[in-house]
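Quick one, tokens below:
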């Protein structure tokens, strides 16, 4: 009985939400501008790739 009432509550909460639906609408960033998305993804993945090189303490000379 408790499980059924919890299931009814969670499904009713989902139905009452007023969020837009569709591809990319549930992401924390905008995918509308492809050039901005390209720059943001390049910075995100580039920073992860470059971090070990900036953090290395081995002498280079």
């Amino acid at each position: 009985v408790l499980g059924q009432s919890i299931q009814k509550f969670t499904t009713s909460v989902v139905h009452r939400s007023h969020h837009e639906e569709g591809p990319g609408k549930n992401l924390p960033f905008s995918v509308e501008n492809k050039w901005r998305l390209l720059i943001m993804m390049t910075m995100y993945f580039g920073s992860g790739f470059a971090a070990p090189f900036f953090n290395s303490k081995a002498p280079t000379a």
